[in-house]
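Re-running PTS mannose family transporter subunit IID to confirm reproducibility after the cluster update. Everything else is unchanged from the original entry.
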Amino acid sequence: MAEKIELSKKTRLAVAWRSTFLQGSWNYERMQNGGWAFAIIPAIKKLYPKKDDQIAALKRHMEFFNTHPYLASPVMGVTLALEQERANGAPVDDVAIQGVKVGMMGPLAGVGDPVFWFTVRPMLGALGASLAIGGNILGPIIFFVAWNIIRWAFIWYTQEFGYKAGSKITDDLSGGLLQDITKGASILGMFVLAALVQRWVSINFQPDVSKVQLADGAFIKWDELPAGTEGIKSAFEQVNQGLALSPEKVTTLQQNLDQLIPGLVPLLLTLFCMWLLKKKVSPIVIILGLFVVGIGGHLIGLL
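Result of re-run:
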């Protein structure tokens, strides 16, 4: 029986260091996939001695991937464990590995921004700035050193946590545990991404559907308002009372669609783009097509 292959701490450190360049080749088609593949190369070389196996593994990791650059570390750790089990003969296929990656990247993406960009970094920046304003050279130094210590420590320890947790996941392959986790992670990932459609995709149809003349007393008569601040105060009071800003009530196509099903058109557009991707249409072609439709729709007054 062949000796079991295990990734050394040195190799895992090399992967963690390379993962700091996760966004170095960010692209619109598959986003962080190039940086991910670059980071995992040391592990792939250790796990798969044969060149063909290395090529197949790298192709496997060139699929779409995108999450917060620091929260990619636990995903990387779990992936290392899955690749290690696969190299040792466990029935871990490409779908299982990609499913776990996609399932984890969605929920983790929403955690990184509030923790790092909106909490830790502003706090350290405020500390460094307060020292710098007082003429203390330690201000920028403290910010730079503290930020990188926190960043690197988080990357390394969460990758190790994911690696150890991933090893436990693969202990019961025969019982179907990995398949259940893969399925659950995929469902969770799709749910999170679907929930974000309304936030990421925005379409606003401009054409007016109807214009209705309001009755006297239902709108603000701007020419009758007092001059100066009293007029502004009176306008605010009338708005609070429910008076319209103009004598006409205009209903747009977008307002009708929002009353029917909010977010329906963005959802349909997303599903259409997914259908095009399934038909092997290049993402670059889809992006250019959206640009053309958006600019053309604006010029004719549709969007």
